[in-house]
Amino acid sequence: MRMNIKIKSMLYCGAFSLYAAQICAQPLPTQGAAPVVEKPLDVDVSGSSNKAIVIAVPAFAAQNTVATKAGSSAELGKQIAAVIAGDLSYSGVFAPKGPMGLPEVSAAQVASPDYSAWSAQGASALLQGFVRADDSGNIVVGCYLYDVLAGSELRRAGFSFVAKGWRRAAHKCADMAFGKMTGEGGFFDSRIIYVAESGSKTHRIKRLAIMDSDGANHQFLTNGQAMVLTPHLTPDQRSIVYMSYQGNRGRIFILDLVGNTQKLVFDTPNLTIAPRVSPDNQWVLFAMSVGGNTNLYRISVNGGEPQQLTKTAGINVGGSYSPDGSKIAFESDRSGSQQIYVMNADGSALHRISFAGGRYATPAWSPNGEWIAFTKIAGSFQIGVFNSDGGNERILTQSWGDEAPNWSPNSRYLAFFRTQEGSGKAQIWSIDLTGANLRRINTPLDGSDPAWGPLLP
Amino acid sequence: MMKTKFIPVFALVAVLAACTHEPPKSVTPPPPPEPEAAAAPVAPQVQQVAIPASTPTQAEFVAHIVSDHVFFAYDSSMLDGAAMATLDSQIAWAQAHPQVKFTIEGHTDERGTREYNLALGQRRAVAAQAYMVAHGVRADRVNTLSYGKERPEDGGSNEAAWAHNRRAVSIIVQ
Predict the structure, then answer these.
(1) What count of CB pairs under 8 Å joins A to B?
(2) B122 to chain A: which residues are within 8 Å by CB?
(3) d(CA B79, CA A145)
(4) Contact at 8 Å (CB) between B76 and B123?
(5) Complex prediction ipTM
(6) Which of A15, A121, A188, A277 gives A171 a disulfide partner, CB atoms 3.0 to 4.6 angstroms apart?
């Protein structure tokens, strides 16, 4: 039983190009002990009242202290545990302890924890592991999750990264723990693309930036000479679609992250905005204004002629594909004010789904297909979700300026931006689907239009 | 509707102006030329109208029109009487400067979502563009672009600031 799960979690071994980091899940030495029946801790993630699980995250053991390109392996062991603890704390599901203040774990203890000692620390779960450098200079991280109360191992996994990709190994460990304990997918090993903002309110500079889900490895992708808006990672994570004012026109571009080349999607004098890429990476969905009316179109990522999907007077914008690509949610003011509609991907079978009063904008279909998140304008600016048919509406946040929710890859968190009254400063925040765990995602400058990429392979 | 009666008059004025090589007429009478203090006396000469080699500046444009801004109600792209009067003055100037091209930039206040506001700003720019074209300005002389809520002119978060920021601005293309 456990072996099967372990093998499944270690199947992937391939190259991921952005950091030029070789990621390769590695088999770990199996434990000699008898198979343990898996019994997950009782974790309630459905409401905001659940108590966070106290999980101990001691420094990862260095089998022997050696220099790596990311520092000494012993130091790396502490940093990896700190990143994991930071991730788990962010999730709101866990209350991590450590690595500071916890006893050191030897390499020999990694696979055979002293449960009673960890229980005495007040921990009900334990995530520990080892780090070592292999012959090629890569870093191998082994990650072990234990149920301290039951005295049993829950899961283990190993990851090999180039040295500078060590944070990703930590995120993979955190994802393993999050996934095992909640029964949901992980999300820490992912990236967020957003618009970095600086300057005064009347002369804001807006440029593309990308970062890890925890804000690390932050990188500006454009220099700010041309304003950019509404970036989205393509589902294959190779590129970013976004709107840019370069050339003093408002048009859509694709930035290839691998080749670092930029391509105009559709050359037109008309304003083109709100780009998204279909789940199969074949179409760019966007909105184009012709004669004052804005309608949705799609165009092949390879170019050609766009195909018009909506044909009404008014504003149709903000398309969002369902995860299977068969449907598109979007907003339209055809009824007089912004409301959310759903249609088939070819524009057929269009119907309105928001009826609860107020304006509804910026629909975002969840990666698991169940929900559509939106901005609701009803006095304040609110972030909410409803079922993909518009039912079961729940408002999660509200402020003077909350806007543009975007899903974490496990459909459990929403990133959005909150603009301050007066100053116009915007920052990126996230909220749990339950409405709990509102957190700021720190960025070096101000930020808006966060778009969460898929879980990295 | 009333405006359509008046516009041919402006157009006619513009045509006359062009035929007679007189300085362009504008809606508000231009101030009389100021004497140059230090100018040496010169013999009277035949007056010539210089064809400017360079495009007029935005400041020159603004000096001869009601305003380069027109304003809109909340979530609206309707031109009211004041907006049409402003555009009429721009049209008159445009007719007198047929070499000049314009970009009309549409803007919104900050009380809306980003993508919707880009489309709304465009609708405003197009409303102004359509009015100019309907009243005689060649369509290929007037481009549009929307900045939505991204470029407020008044940084306040109050009704007066929002009213000012809901605008379409005619910019001379240099």
Answers:
(1) 99
(2) 271, 289, 292, 294
(3) 66
(4) no
(5) 0.88
(6) A188
Position of tokens 């603009």?
A419
> What number of helices (H) and strands (E) belong to chain B?
5, 4
Token pair for A402 = 């909350």
Q: What is chain A's mean pLDDT, rounded?
A: 89
Interface of B with A in 79-138 (CB under 8 A): 103, 110-116, 118-120, 122-123, 126-127, 130
More confident residue, A98 or A209: A209
Strand B142-148 relative to strand B102-107: parallel, antiparallel, unpaired?
Answer: parallel
Rounded Cα distance, A235 and A262, in Å: 17
CA–CA dist A423, A201 (Å, integer): 6
Task: Say whether A248 and B77 touch across the interface (CB within 8 A).
Answer: no
Q: Distance from A356 to chain B by nearest Cα, in Å?
A: 18
| Element (DSSP H or E) covering residue A89 | helix A73-91
Contact A274, A287 (CB under 8 A): yes
**Residues of B in Cβ contact (< 8 Å) with A269:** 143
Interface contact B156, partner A, CB < 8 A: yes
By the CB < 8 Å criterion, does B144 face chain A?
A: yes
Rg (CA), chain A: 23
The pLDDT of residue B42 is 56
Within A101-234, residue ranges assigned H as helices are: 115-120, 166-182
Q: B47: which strand partners? A: none
Tokens of residue A185, six digits: 């997918």
Q: Collapse the DSSP code of A431 into the 3-class scheme (helix H, G, I; strand E, B; otherwise coil) and give the result.
A: strand
Q: Give the span between the Cα atoms of B106 and A44, in whole angstroms.
A: 50
Percent of chain B, pLDDT > 90? 68
pLDDT at position A134 is 86
Which pLDDT score, from 0 to 100, does residue A135 have?
84
CA separation for the pair A440, A212 (Å, rounded): 14
Residue A30, helix vs strand vs coil: coil
Nearest alpha carbon to residue A340 among A296, A383, A372, A294? A372
CB–CB of B118 and A250 under 8 A? Answer: yes
A248 touches chain B (CB under 8 A): yes
CB-based contacts of B35, cutoff 8 Å, min separation 6 = none
